[in-house]
Amino acid sequence: MGRYIIRRLLQSIPVLLGATLLIFAIVFALPGDPIAALAGEKRADPNIVAILREQYHLNDPLLLQYWHYISGVLFRFDFGVTFAQVPVSQIMAGKFQVTLNLAVTALLIEAFIGVGLGLWAALRRGKATDTMILASTLLLISVPTLVSGFILQFILGVKLKQWTGLDIFPIAGISNGLRSYLLPGFVLAGVSIAYLTRLTRTSLAETLRADFIRTATAKGLSRRRVVGRHALRNALIPLITFLGADLGNLMGGAVITERIFNLPGIGLQLFDSVYLREQPVVVGIVTILVLIYILANLVVDVMYAVLDPRIRYE
Amino acid sequence: MRVTKGAQIVAGTALLALAVAACGGGASDNGGTAAGGGSAETPVRMELGEPQELLVPSNTTESEGSETLAALFEPLVNYDENKNAVEAAAESITSDDQKVWTIKLKSGYTWHNGEPLIAQNYVDAWNYAANQENAQSAGYFFGRVDGFADLNPGEGKPVTTKTMKGLEAVDDTTLKVTLTAPFSQFKVMLGYTAFYPLPKAAFGPDGKVTQAYGEQPIGQGMFKMDKPYKKGTDQTIDMTVYDKYPGTKPKNWTKLQFKLYTDSDVAFNDLQANNLDIHDSLSPAAISTAKSTLGERYQDQPDAGVGYIGVPLKYNPELNKVDVRKAISMAIDRKTIAETVFSGTRAPADDFINPAIAGYRQGACKACTYNPAEAKKLYEAAGGPKTLELGYNADGGHKEWMEAVANNLRSNLGIEAQAKPFEKFASILDELDAKTYKGLFRMGWAIDYPSAENYLSPIFSTGAIQTGSNYGGYSNKKFDDLIAQGDQAATVEEGLKFYQQADDILNEELPYIPVYFYRNNSGYSTSVKNVKINLLNQIEWADVEKA
């Protein structure tokens, strides 16, 4: 097991290097001069542009620029600075924390609600409850985050406070601790809740028809034990795969939610930095996102072994 | 069912680590903000976008950073309700020949670290700003000071001196500034961010302004920063009234908090829920709600910005005919664009000088009146081009009104007019230079200092083709002469007469086509009253009261 994990981690090194070079090259290829664009709509002073281009090594060829960057990261653990001279590591530390909080909140919400609803639907297959749950997931899938975010913010943030004086769901920012993440977490989880509900329902329904369930029931086990201990455990495998992969999606794809709720996370930062062509920030964030995908996949693979003893990695 | 022990441990650890990582951050966020509002007093909360740079006056040319710095610094002059510059940190600003200026400082001002404010602080700050090696974005403001050229020898050339010869601290309270040529509006410029002084403590051992200073600037103004602002991480900038500030302080409050938003509409939601007190940049989408829900607390006032259709005169000879430009101008329905496309957040333009500034004359631009029939006749007579492209930068919300203008031109002039998006404004200029684009383009102007001269010389003078914002390449000898006469006039008011004559030439020749004047749309909560916004779009903090 240990050797397997170490091998997987070693394999990720070339993946990471390749990803950084690729992202670096893509940002490099974007049109326009990022320094000149800093002056907004006034023409930047050519002297100053020249000095700043020199300072950020923007006149060097691509590979040399990449070397400046990657050697700083590898040998000095220096992720570079933004165009405002703020260290990228400082920005990433703060922003990843926000997005991680948001993504984990969303993941917990979708796991509880999604799996819960899916179980309920699977056990009441074909009945009114089942139909109702399926219909409501359809609604969740079809309403875009942008719409649900603004509507929930307005109703639960603005109107609820105006009507009742209760300040339960903060509208914007992270100044209310973990409470700040409840509403954005739910909005972000929305679509995934729907998928997870459907996945759980199908997976469990299929497992419940399997031979070993009939055997378990035949040998006189209680319904609770049959479903909880035998069926659910087997049905969980595809769900774990989904949740593992979804953590990466939630972290990288939270731009809209972060904007609506004014959360200073990496989604927004990535958006701004691509726009400003701040290579060190873009590459830094994407590299860590790649790392998170790799680790999440590793955890998913290990979880398989936990859930299904037939799977062994050696 | 057996599970391998190893796998169980690994999986358990991973889940635990994730949960701890997430919770850990939550707790520390909580601690961080509790410190900001530590005292019993709730601050006055003001909406802000993220400043582009660290908070250094000489490197701040955008609105959000300027707004923050304005609370921390006292400028040499302020602007009163009659649009005139009045002394603030300066006792007097005088000149006999408009070339050598003597600035006497008021006594009583100290830096937030206790140092007294002296004339040398201005000399240090201005020399630092103008030196090309420091790459300060507001360096160009000092272009009129004698010795600016020595600090800016050009690309790749070393700077051999550290000071401008036109700057001199005669004694601790007297500053002498010599300009290369007379400039009657010099006093009006001095209220801008670039002219703030810097304390000794701002400079590091290498003579550069330190990173730490940019995070927590020490000013000499009404407010003092509570803690460093970590750009990119912090969502608030917290300040407290400075005890030893000699000017008028706010009546019944002492704490000010800037809250950073990425989306104006989200801030408006926060305002409605009373989580925010002042919002000075309401979006067109929020206007109708703001009018009905805020009532008296919604304000609408002129803002000094102007929006134009730029004409590339030097790139496109077809457009280098006055009648063609007049026809285009008369074919634009400014009123409908201002009221419908912008929901009233703009006003139709009828001069090159904005109504917020002294010198504006209503209806000065005759060809700015909507007259489609006359426009079509004139356009055909002058032989205007059959197709026109209207370039705009797609990153700034300009699509709708440029489409509307294109629509006007299509139906009123009977030509093929098409709005064309560019990535950024700089891309339009690049393509004009490269001669791959020669159509009309969108152009906006926000003033650097509130003088009529600022609407004319930086955009339309011959000198500004090289060094300024004269992107169309307009050049008119008579116009340049009138500007020079205005610059040499004995007083601000006398200068204005010449500038207005120069403005007449623009209104006649239309090098650009003015389309709208900006307006400032703001709102405030029930917890504050008497909110006033000055010419530079900054709140007059001393007037604000807690309700």
From TrEMBL, chain A:
InterPro entries from the UniProt entry: BPD_transp_1_N, MetI-like, MetI-like_sf
PROSITE patterns: ABC_TM1
Membrane-topology annotation of the record: Multi-pass membrane protein
Cellular compartments annotated: Cell membrane
Protein name in UniProt: ABC transporter permease
Keyword set, alphabetical order: Cell membrane, Membrane, Transmembrane, Transmembrane helix, Transport
PANTHER family on file: DIPEPTIDE TRANSPORT SYSTEM PERMEASE PROTEIN DPPB-RELATED, DIPEPTIDE-TRANSPORT INTEGRAL MEMBRANE PROTEIN ABC TRANSPORTER DPPB-RELATED
TM ranges: 12-30, 98-121, 133-158, 178-196, 281-307
Domain ABC transmembrane type-1, chain residue ranges per copy: 96-304
A Gene Ontology BP annotation from the UniProt entry: transmembrane transport
GO CC annotation, single: plasma membrane
Protein family: Belongs to the binding-protein-dependent transport system permease family.
Chief place of localization: membrane
Keyword field contains RNA-binding: no
